[in-house]
Amino acid sequence: MNIILFGPPGVGKGTQAARLKEAYNLLHLSTGEALREEVKNQTELGKRAKEAMNKGELVSDEIVVGIVINTMEKASGKNGVMLDGFPRNIPQAQTLDALLSKRNITIDHVLSLESDQEIILKRLAGRRFCNKCGKDYNIYFNPPKVEGECDACEDGILAARADDNEKVHLDRLNVYASQTEPLKEYYAKKGLLRPIDGMGSPDEVFEEVKKILN
Ligand code: AMP
Predict the structure, then answer these.
(1) Which of 5, 26, 150, 213 could link 84 by a cystine bridge, Cβ 3.0 to 4.6 Å?
(2) CATH number of the domain bearing residue 108
(3) Does 53 contact ligand 1 (Cβ within 6 A)?
(4) Which residue range(s) make up the domain with 108?
(5) Which atom of ligand 1 is nearest to the CA of 56?
(6) Residue 59 in contact with ligand 1 by CB distance below 6 A
(7) pLDDT tens digit string along 33-75?
(8) Do the domain assignments include residue 50?
């Protein structure tokens, strides 16, 4: 089973991705996560991506598609691929179609998480990640047991992402509306779009996801 996790920044794609990956043994490909690794490791690719990421803009299709191709090669032993944060515009979707058809792979579902902009902005403002294991929290919706500390790691400290500030959030939502949202129609026409109410708790949303996949 191959799926695309779709939705605006902050809607909860990462949270659902962690659950889906475990429950269905999928290769999780988050282009945002892969890009952050490149930036952290100060690779050539990371240096080229960093500026766009910090401004909330899209990184060039060439860089992102390269990452997707490299990761897809590692899908053996898994039940399929889960794309998270990719594609982000129509050209990326067309490139993906070409890549998949060459490998005889098809997308089964585009899970489209939907939410109000007000809730999304609050979710984005409250996001924190553990500096050790990467586990995600939200100080408003999913706080850790002890403020600022990871529940899972002994000495994990929670911090916001470099691109988590209000100006960047609004820019990212604008980029989403103009470049990414048109993909809904693209996938609806292919009969693959599965809208899901993303405003419930992570467990409630996951129940909806399972109803579609099972
Ligand atoms: P994310 O973790 O998915 O929110 O992505 C963080 C940032 O990485 C985005 O704001 C973009 O700058 C960049 N990025 C992630 N995925 C893509 C993509 N498919 N195309 C272009 N840029 C991307």
Answers:
(1) 5
(2) 3.40.50.300
(3) yes
(4) 3-116+178-213
(5) 10
(6) yes
(7) 999 999 999 999 999 999 999 999 999 999 999 888 888 777 7
(8) yes
